[in-house]
């Protein structure tokens, strides 16, 4: 016999049908080298991505695009503020004239303000999806502040508020709008754009103070005097105007300063400045303003404000163009960087695919082979052994030979494949030995069961003869008890046959009535005295299922009597509308939890494999196996008050007609009486001889 360490190993190097090749071939690289190469390429790609700062370019492009969108909305806000400043000045003049006079110019200006606000609201609604949350909230605040304009108009026209109060109300509204616009400069990261934004804000303040001067002096000319409050307001506007001009010079470029100086200039502007100085001089000399023309002042002041508005619009155009240009540059840089990164990633991807395929292909083959062995080859090998009519241990290795995993490299994956071949071979060997052990155990079960059945049958035959000849009631009762115990022993032997997967060897005597089936099951139960039988339907069961059905019912009765204490177990049966035979076994014991009942019903419907738990609950396994064999439905359910109800449903396919009763034997003819034997004639008496 060949020793185990001398036997040829399956899947070894000697059995390789293909050469492994040189160690420097890519497929023979070590797994660590492959992993290093696969990880090195993405690392280099990440370094390139960080170097190109593509994420920063995209973020700058997005921020500039949002800023450009806000610039378009701010342009509409600036236009609305410009028209609102004109409305303020006209409203103040109207109130200073005791709310009398022609309101056509004021009404037309209000319509222009409403149109400018409508343009702003439409632009804001269209631009909100392209704005960030902070910018959208800021512009929404602008829209909310403009909603108070209706109340200002009503109070200015219908209330008793003086002109200076109306001026303050309008100025607070306009100043709030300008403050919101000023806060947007803090969100700009580009220095040039921030300087342009600040210059535009300073120019908006310049224009606002010019408008305030127009309103204050227009109010003074309407009443004919420049009192102390109006003088203070006019001087304050001059001071604010000078401060705003200083801010503009600080943030504006020389070209932008020159544009302002070249635009806001002229005779009309000078006339307006002269009229302001003249009004202040007359006020200092306690003179009235009767020599100054209100219309001339309004024309010159409005002309100056409009010129400033032109410069403001030019700055806004420059800001918008610069923002669009920077956004386009950022997008171009992002696209360029993305193209470079894409090229790097493409090269890295090609290299990664080549190396990854060399790494993953053997692993996939190994995985597929392992699954095929686990799911098909090994079960098929064990099944072949179980179905082999003449299993022989000496042929086990030949019949269970395994094919090697088709991975023939020298690196770690190939080594794992060879190790798996060894494990597979050992698993097949152990599975074969286990299968043979199981076959031997089943054979022992069958042998022991058949021996026990032979002895039990002989014992039953002896008991039948003794019962037939016994006349003593006490002795006859003991013999009946022994007969009952022997019947139970025969059922246990049959359980061993079922456990081993073999059928019992009882003969098929044809269809049997339901009464006889229940009675036969009752005779195999220990505590049959506590079982109360109900009437059975007048049906019969086909012969091939009789023995197994008797076995099923007897096991259920045994279980009911064992776990019901001293309570009575009732058995009732009836024929259903579908032609099935339903048997109900009801006990009044402690019962089972519902979860355990459900688990037991699952095992009854699907018999489990033979294991330790099956050996502990052999009756349940036997019932499930025999019932499944004939498609008999067995279920457990909780009783109405306590205990369990076992329901056995015999399908109509197993139901047969009740066999006819055998004809009674003919009456025996009386035996002929023997004729009386005649007495023999007496012998003649002879006298005794003397």
Radius of gyration: 57 Å
Which stretches of 5+ consecutive residues score pLDDT under 50?
1-17, 675-690
For the biggest β-sheet, the strand order reads 2-4-5-7-6
Q: How many structural domains does the protein architecture include?
A: 3
Q: What is the element string, with H for helices and E for strands? A: HHHHHHHHHHHHHHEHEEHEEHHHEEE
Q: Give the count of helical stretches.
A: 19
How much helical structure, as a percent, in the residues? 55-70%
Q: Distance between termini?
A: 110 Å
Query: What's the overall geometry?
Result: elongated
Sheet with the most strands?
5 strands, mixed
Structural class: mainly alpha
Q: What is the typical, i.e. mean, pLDDT? A: 77
Report on the structure:
A hairpin with a 5-residue loop joins strand 4 and strand 5. Helix 2 runs antiparallel to helix 3, helix 4 runs antiparallel to helix 6 and helix 17 packs across helix 19. The chain is mostly helical and 690 residues long. 30% of the residues are buried. The protein has 3 domains: 288 residues, no CATH class; 118 residues; 150 residues, 2-Layer Sandwich (Heat Shock Protein 90). The strands form 2 sheets. A 5-stranded mixed β-sheet has the order 2-4-5-7-6. Strands 1-3-8 form a 3-stranded antiparallel β-sheet. The N terminus and C terminus are likely disordered.
Structure summary:
The protein has 690 residues and is mainly alpha-helical. It has helices at 31-52, 54-96, 104-127, 133-146, 149-158, 163-183, 191-223, 228-251, 254-263, 267-284, 294-387, 396-399, 412-469, 473-499, 514-522, 543-562, 594-605, 612-616, 618-629; strands at residues 512-513, 531-533, 540-541, 569-575, 581-586, 633-638, 644-650, 655-656.
């Amino acid at each position: 016999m060949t020793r185990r360490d001398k036997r040829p190993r399956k899947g070894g190097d000697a059995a390789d049908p293909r050469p492994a090749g040189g160690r420097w071939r890519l497929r023979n690289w070590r797994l660590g080298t492959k992993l290093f190469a696969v990880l090195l390429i993405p690392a280099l790609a990440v370094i390139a991505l960080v170097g190109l700062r593509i994420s920063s370019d995209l973020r700058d492009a997005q921020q500039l695009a949002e800023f450009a969108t806000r610039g378009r909305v701010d342009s509409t806000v600036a236009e609305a503020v410009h028209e609102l400043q004109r409305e303020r000045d006209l409203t103040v003049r109207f109130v200073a004239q005791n709310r009398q006079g022609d309101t056509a110019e004021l009404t037309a200006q209000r319509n222009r303000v409403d149109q400018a606000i409508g343009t702003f609201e439409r632009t804001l609604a269209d631009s909100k999806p392209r704005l960030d949350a902070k910018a959208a909230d800021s512009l929404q605040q602008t829209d909310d502040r403009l909603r108070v304009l209706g109340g200002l108009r009503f109070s200015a026209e219908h209330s008793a508020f003086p002109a200076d109060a109306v001026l303050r109300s309008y100025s607070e509204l306009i100043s709030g709008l300008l403050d919101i616009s000023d806060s947007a400069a803090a969100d700009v990261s580009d220095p040039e754009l921030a300087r342009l934004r600040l210059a535009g804000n300073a120019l908006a303040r310049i224009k606002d103070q010019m408008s305030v001067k127009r309103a204050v002096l227009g109010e003074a000319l309407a009443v004919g005097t420049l009192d102390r409050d109006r003088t203070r307001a006019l001087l304050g506007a001059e001071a604010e105007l000078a401060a705003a001009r200083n801010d503009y010079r600080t943030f504006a470029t020389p070209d932008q300063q020159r544009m302002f100086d070249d635009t806001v200039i002229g005779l009309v502007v000078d006339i307006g400045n002269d009229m302001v100085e003249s009004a202040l001089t007359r006020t200092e000399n306690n003179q009235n303003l009767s020599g100054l023309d209100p219309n001339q002042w309004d024309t010159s002041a409005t002309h100056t404000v409009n010129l400033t508005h032109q410069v403001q619009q030019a700055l806004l155009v420059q800001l918008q163009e610069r923002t669009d240009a920077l956004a386009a540059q950022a997008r171009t840089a992002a696209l360029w960087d993305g193209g470079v990164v894409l090229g790097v990633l493409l090269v890295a991807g090609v290299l990664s695919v080549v190396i990854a395929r060399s790494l993953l292909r053997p692993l996939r083959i190994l995985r597929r082979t392992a699954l095929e062995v686990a799911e098909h080859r090994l079960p098929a090998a064990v099944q072949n052994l179980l179905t082999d009519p003449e299993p022989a241990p000496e042929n086990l290795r030949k019949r269970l030979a395994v094919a090697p995993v088709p991975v023939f490299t020298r690196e770690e994956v190939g080594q794992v494949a060879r190790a798996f071949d060894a494990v597979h071979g050992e698993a097949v060997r152990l599975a074969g030995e286990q299968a043979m052990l199981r076959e031997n155990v089943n054979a022992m079960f069958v042998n022991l069961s058949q021996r026990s059945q032979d002895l039990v049958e002989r014992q039953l035959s002896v008991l039948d003869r003794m019962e037939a000849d016994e006349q003593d009631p006490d002795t006859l009762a003991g013999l009946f008890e022994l007969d009952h115990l022997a019947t139970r022993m025969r059922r246990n032997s049959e359980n061993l046959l079922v456990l081993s997967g073999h059928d019992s060897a009882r003969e098929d005597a044809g269809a049997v009535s339901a009464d006889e089936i229940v009675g036969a099951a009752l005779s195999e139960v220990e505590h049959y005295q506590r079982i109360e039988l109900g009437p059975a339907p007048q049906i019969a069961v086909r012969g091939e299922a009789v023995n197994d059905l008797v076995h099923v019912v007897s096991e259920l009765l045994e279980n009911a009597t064992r776990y019901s204490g001293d309570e009575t177990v009732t058995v009732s049966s009836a024929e259903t509308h579908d032609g099935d035979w339903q048997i109900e076994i009801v006990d009044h014991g402690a019962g089972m939890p519902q979860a355990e009942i459900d688990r037991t019903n699952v095992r009854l419907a699907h018999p489990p494999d033979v294991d330790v738990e099956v050996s502990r609950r052999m009756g349940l396994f036997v019932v499930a196996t025999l019932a499944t064999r004939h498609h008999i439905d067995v279920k457990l359910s909780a009783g109405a008050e306590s205990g369990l109800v076992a329901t056995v449903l015999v399908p109509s396919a197993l139901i047969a007609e009740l066999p006819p009763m055998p004809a009674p034997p003919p009456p025996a003819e009386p035996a002929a009486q023997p004729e009386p034997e005649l007495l023999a004639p007496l012998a003649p008496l002879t006298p005794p001889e003397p």
